[in-house]
Amino acid sequence: HFTRELWIEQDDFQEIPPPKYFRLFPGNSVRLRYGYIVTCTGFDKDPVTGQITAVRCTYDPDTRGGNAQDNRKVKGTIHWVSVKHAIPIEVRLYDYLFAVERPMDVPPGGSFLDNLNPNSLEVIPNAYGEPCLADTKAEDKFQFERIGYFVRDPDNAGTKPVFNKTVGLRDTWAKIEKKITGQ
User: Fold this and answer.
1) pTM, whole model, 2 decimals?
2) I want to staple 81 with a disulfide (CB 3.0 to 4.6 A). Which of 3, 86, 98, 169 is the partner?
3) What is 6-82's CATH superfamily?
């Protein structure tokens, strides 16, 4: 459902984008997956934290399906969910359990437990998803676009469906960003 207010991934907007960033930034246009082409006209920031709280855009009603009739080139495509129709979900992102390739290689007096990755689990308790996710059952499998493959957890975290990442997708932008920052 395309509505006036949409949520996008936080990583899909940057106030000052680095080179080769084809997502949303002031003055740039992107395709909304299965939607329209939108152009960023501004954004709001929290005065205390500096965090972006809203991104303002205009949409081109002649671009349903993401194709411009005037043949303009739009490089980025982002996914979105309608604020009005989205349902609350919890997402659990799993990373490597160990921070090193060989966890049993420890100095004398150490333990393999010293090599645990403290960031092996990231829980996003206040995520939002498509309304159809409310009707899913434990062990149902999904691809969350550009993120990875997920399975519905039998744990409902109260009233919200919980989805566990099983396999991540290759993130081209993360690779480019690593080269730019040298990390």
Assistant:
1) 0.76
2) 86
3) Ribosomal Protein L25; Chain P (2.40.240.10)
